Amino acid sequence: MGTHESPAATEPKVPARAAGIVALLNTRPHATPTLPDTLDDPATAAEVLAAFGQPAGVTLTPHQLDRIRAVRTDLMAVVGAADPEHTERGWTNLSADVSDATFRQVFSARGEARLEQVSGDHIVGRIALDVAELVRDNTWSRIRACANEQCRHVFYDTTRSRTQRWDSYETCGNRVNVAAHRARSSRSHA
């Protein structure tokens, strides 16, 4: 007798690194009505930044939050880029904003190698390291902003074809498609 896998068991899993980056990008003000910058809320900031090694109960300084927001802006410039020139500009800005986070190679007797941060802000460094791993693993391109301009919520595309456009087809995709259909119908009846 054959076994059937549940749909949840066959769906690709979102890597923890990607989930942390997606959560960080979704802390920015976006959507209609505009959601607030949730990094302004210490509890939400602590929850999101825990994925990047922020210890519980430690409050970030305004300067640290500004640096994290700058990195978030750089990453959104890459995710939402309209063309290769804007993508390149986003990566260049990110490189500048994380440049004080330096790393060294640490090798073990088991034949493993890992990067260890030796200078710079630890949260910014961890974000940079996670992004670098996603780029290296060829999964960065799965991080997308919803194609609905009134939403722009960031999500991780788990489709095999890597063609997901909406963070939720039921709300965003359907709404955009209905609006486009109505616009085409009104032009053809005019």
* Beta-strand percent range: 5-15%
Strand order of the largest sheet: 1-2
Distance between the termini: 60 Å
Task: Specify Rg, calculated over alpha carbons.
Answer: 20 Å
Distinct helical segment count: 7
Largest sheet: 2 strands, antiparallel
Taking pLDDT < 50 over at least 5 consecutive residues as the criterion, the unreliable ranges are 1-9
Number of strands: 4
What is the chain-wise order of helices and strands? HHHHHEEHEEH
User: What's the average pLDDT?
Assistant: 87
Task: Briefly note the structural class of the backbone.
Answer: mainly alpha
**Large-scale geometry:** globular
The proportion of residues forming helix, as a percent range, comes to 40-55%
Secondary structure elements and pairings:
Elements: H1 7-10, H2 16-25, H3 42-49, H4 62-79, H5 84-97, E1 102-107, E2 113-119, H6 122-136, E3 143-145, E4 154-156, H7 169-188
Antiparallel strand pairs: 1-2, 3-4
